[in-house]
Specification:
Layout: H1 12-19, H2 31-42, H3 51-58, E1 82-86, H4 95-98, H5 107-126, E2 137-148, E3 159-168, E4 172-183, E5 186-200, H6 218-239, H7 249-261, E6 284-286, E7 291-297, H8 311-330, E8 334-344, E9 353-364, E10 367-378, E11 383-396, E12 402-404, H9 408-427
Parallel strand pairs: 6-12
Antiparallel strand pairs: 1-3, 2-5, 2-8, 3-4, 4-5, 7-9, 8-11, 9-10, 10-11
Organism: Hippolais icterina (icterine warbler)
Family: Belongs to the acyl coenzyme A hydrolase family.
Domain HotDog ACOT-type: 80-203, 288-400
């Protein structure tokens, strides 16, 4: 059950680099250098009290933006290729930050690292030699998918991240990243991830053009085409959203069968059963009883280079709540299988009250599909605004109860969870 996925074959132009060397090369940057480099690229201040002035200084970079994409030099996939080391084995002093109570690596920390690396890869793709600072504000728009093929990430073995820009639109870039861990002298795959980043002007207000991407080999052509297909799939999935279209005939039958299965016929005859009288089937849990909530005060410590709350931090907090929801529901330790379709709808400002709600929305055998809803609460206006929706697929050590919707709204959450689960199973 834990052989969750087969890593897609990496393009040959990159595969040689992935397998070269058997230990952490000292010349490879680590994650602290990645974040330091990002601050240098945009001119971000390390002191919170200076952040207003730093952002004011970025306004002058407007003149460096390209008027058309055609004015920017095309780039190759290898131009943006980066390798970064996480020396958990060779530098034990950083291990504590990544360690969880089960003596494995905190996956939430890995999400943070992937987010930072994805942004740096895009800045590498768009770098102009004559510009000391980039006029672009590159932010994470979407985590398309993260699929894992290892149940455990070991806390005492070096990790290597690799990645490059795999597809480019006018103002957006798809980034493919891979994570490998050192075992017995060789790096073996742990996960692959696909992020979508968008470029905006220096003040992060309007879209900005990015360098076009030129594939150089049949393998790269295939990767680029897959990026186009991924974009079309996202559009198709969004168009068919249950918020826009009614469920399919098959899905309506599923909901109706669940409804009939929960009618209580014990006290009344078959022909006089009440629609209001509901009973929970054996080995099941009402959906309304399968949720957890959390609150996070967003301090300056968690800000990104643009002085909004770091997207990786939001993903870590959402993942940890999702894990806790799956753990309390299944009654045993859950393992992450996949992360998909995380849309960053609105930025989160420093000082915000972040409300997180984890919901079990679909179950099948040992699998638990979790939806985490993130919203910001403005204490002055008393308004709530959705910032993110997160989708996590977990596998539990034991078979879990079936989650059962009671209302129509819960039924839509159930069907949406089933759609995400089915998509994940096809992918892995």
């Amino acid at each position: 059950a834990y052989r969750l996925c087969i890593m897609r074959k990496l393009p040959s132009v990159l595969a040689r680099t992935l397998t070269s060397g058997t230990s952490a090369s000292p010349e490879l940057p680590d994650m602290s250098k990645v974040r330091s480099k990002l601050r240098d690229i945009v001119g971000a201040s390390t002191n919170w009290r200076d952040h207003v002035q730093a952002m004011q200084e970025r306004k002058a970079l407007h003149t460096l933006l390209a008027k058309r994409q055609e004015d920017l030099p095309p780039r190759r996939m290898k131009d943006s290729y980066l390798e970064v080391i996480l020396p958990l084995g060779s530098q034990p002093e950083i291990r504590e930050k990544y360690l969880n109570v089960h003596n494995s690596v905190r996956f939430g920390r890995i999400l943070e690292d992937l987010d930072s690396l994805g942004v740096l890869i895009c800045y590498t793709h768009t770098k102009q030699e004559m510009q000391q600072r980039s006029p672009l504000s590159i932010v994470t728009a979407l985590v398309d998918k993260i699929n894992l093929c290892q149940k455990i990430i070991h806390p005492d073995c070096d990790i290597k991240f690799t990645g490059n820009v795999s597809w480019v639109g006018k103002t957006s870039m798809e980034v493919k990243m891979h994570m490998l861990q050192l075992h017995n002298g060789d790096y073996s795959p742990v996960l692959d991830a696909t992020f979508v980043m968008v470029a905006r002007d220096p003040e992060n207000k309007r879209p900005a053009f990015v360098n076009p991407l030129i594939p150089e080999s049949p393998e790269e052509e295939e990767i680029f085409k897959q990026g186009e297909l991924n974009k079309l799939k996202r559009i198709e999935f969004s168009t068919a959203s249950l918020l826009k279209m009614a469920p399919t005939a098959e899905e309506r039958n599923i909901v109706h069968d669940i409804f009939l299965n929960t009618l209580d016929t014990r006290q009344e005859g078959e022909g006089t059963v009440s629609f209001r009288s509901r009973k929970l089937p054996p080995n099941s849990v009402w959906m309304e009883d399968a949720k957890l909530k959390g609150l996070q005060i967003c301090h300056p410590e968690e800000r990104n280079i643009f002085n909004r709350i770091f997207g990786g931090f939001l993903m870590r907090k959402a993942f940890e709540l999702g894990w806790a929801t799956a753990c309390s529901y299944g009654g045993s330790r859950p393992f992450i299988v996949s992360v998909d379709d995380i849309m960053f709808q609105k930025p989160v400002e420093v000082g915000s009250l972040l409300l997180l709600s984890g919901q079990v929305c679909y179950t099948e055998k040992n699998y638990i599909q979790i939806r985490v809803h993130s919203e910001v609460y403005n204490a002055n206006t008393r308004e709530h605004h959705t910032t993110n929706i997160f989708h996590f697929t977990f596998i539990s050590e034991n078979e879990v109860p079936q989650v059962v919707p009671k209302t129509y709204g819960e039924s839509m959450l159930f069907l949406d969870g089933k759609r995400h689960f089915t998509a994940v199973m096809k992918e892995i």
